[in-house]
Amino acid sequence: MPRKMFVIFGASNILWMVFTVSQAFKIETFPENKIVAQIGDVVSLTCRTTGCELPSFSWRTHLDSPLNGQVRNEGSNSTLTMDPVGFRNEYSYLCTAICGSEKREKGIQVEIYSFPKDPEIHLSGPLEVGKPVTVTCLVPDVYPFDRLEMNLLKGNHLLQNKDFVEPMERKSLETKSLEVTFTPTNEDIGKALVCQAKLHIDEIDFKPKERETTKKLQVYISPKNTVISVNPSTRLQEGGSVTMTCSSEGLPAPQIFWSKKLDNGNLQLLSGNSTLTLIAMRTEDSGIYVCEGVNQVGKNGKEVELIVQVAPRDTTILVSPSSILEEGSSVNMTCSSNGLPAPKILWSRQLNNGHLQPLSENSTLTLTSTKMEDSGVYVCEGINQAGIDRKEVELIIQVAPKDIQLTAFPSESVKEGDTVIISCTCGNVPKTWIILKKKAETGDTVLQSRDGAYTIHKVQLEDAGVYECESKNEVGLQLRSLTLDVKGRGNYQDYFSPELLVLYCSSSLIIPAIGMIIYFARRANMKGSYSLVEAQKSKV
């Protein structure tokens, strides 16, 4: 074979081999061209090659945005997983495969939507005949919401239709709603509310494109026309019985509750039956009884007053602030009595002879600036046509200690060995306690006094100090103190005073002077005359 022909044949074989290899190296994707995914789901894009043992893969978006996913390569497969898929994944993804010097590419379009739940129906309150109610239909987390249509129906009647055609300023999940207000009637009983939602994206194949929620109407009628019947009468004698029956209209049928109205206006529940029977009635059973018909949307009540006629009883007295008072303070005494008809109140004061001195016909008796003579027994009487009931209270007016005096006899300054009496006295105040103490830094010492007097026989230096008298009763107390001074017998100031010292010194000078005068007088008598000068000379 000529060399030229061999070269041509060899070159043609190489070209054929290259052509064969290039035809065998292929790429395909799963899904093939496009995938429609609901936001929040997990989406996987797969790129697969044939005709190459060790291909290399790469992924990118057509805008070179981040992949926002995880890539996994295994042999001739490469998978891009987005978990979860969202707005950041709404791109066209391009898979590139390289085998030697050969490169293959294929794209997959990722489109997203959100239509995850059936609509929700909410009512502003119970459906009550004759009262307007607002119905709200909600479609949560919709995208794209500009393709949403909503319908609200009552039975087969369309209440409202709405298309959300406003432009979307940004990609986001939106909750859209439709509201309708209507007034329920008796004809609405048994009907249903239907909320329909449709997402019109025809170019995307997904299911479901329509969602629907149905809510059966529960229509109520608030209780009304409540009626009470009483047997035998609303006026009763103590010990008698009465039966009261109540009825009320409504839908559903109201439940009956019996209560008694208390003095503070609150209701005390008695029964959940339509009939209430009271036996052996007492005065405290008098009052207003209430029957209420109650269902889910309201209640309706009716009242009846029962009167049990009795003589005054349970008379009580309330004293404020207390029945034991300090002189000069004020006191309020309030009396109440039960009975039918309502008893009249009469306040009196019991005298020493047992008679009553009338004071007031008001329920409250007030004494201001009280004195000791206001102490005594006060009587409240509840009186009506059936009888009298009385209550007593004793008022005690106390006086705080006053005019307290603390003295030391014979004096507050005594000598060691003397006897001294420390005495504490108080004004003419009953029930007064007197306590004598000797004060000290280490603590007070309570003295065993008798009638407020404490005697110290042969007083010692350690008995000196501060003595305190405390006079007290339930109202208050007073304090007085004195200082006892005890002088010792060896005290120089007591037995050798400065005056005595001057007298002593003076006497010590006078005696020698008198001696000298007598001496010179005698000499003068001997000579017949005396000269002081001569006397001085004789000494020279």
SSE layout and pairing:
Elements: H1 3-24, E1 26-30, E2 34-38, E3 43-50, E4 56-61, E5 70-74, E6 77-82, E7 92-99, E8 102-113, E9 120-123, E10 127-128, E11 133-142, E12 148-154, E13 157-163, E14 174-182, E15 192-199, E16 210-216, E17 219-231, E18 235-237, E19 242-251, E20 255-261, E21 267-271, E22 275-278, E23 287-295, E24 298-320, E25 324-326, E26 331-340, E27 344-350, E28 356-360, E29 364-367, E30 376-384, E31 387-398, E32 405-409, E33 413-415, E34 420-425, E35 433-438, E36 445-446, E37 453-456, E38 465-472, E39 477-487, H2 492-495, H3 498-527, H4 532-538
Q: What brief labels describe this structure?
A:
single chain; 540 residues; mainly beta; Immunoglobulin-like; 5 domains; five-stranded mixed β-sheet; 39 strands; 51% strand; disordered C terminus; transmembrane
Overview of this protein structure:
This protein has 4 helices and 39 strands. By secondary structure, it is mainly beta. It has 5 domains: 25-113, Immunoglobulins (Immunoglobulin-like); 120-217, Immunoglobulin-like (Sandwich); 228-394, Immunoglobulin-like (Sandwich), CATH 2.60.40.10; 405-492, Immunoglobulin-like, CATH 2.60.40.10; 498-532. Strands 18, 20, 21, 23, 24, 26 and 29 form a 7-stranded mixed β-sheet that branches. A hairpin with a 2-residue loop joins β7 (92-99) and β8. The protein is elongated and about 140 Å long. The relative contact order is 0.06. Mean pLDDT is 84; it is low at 1-22, 492-505 and 523-540.
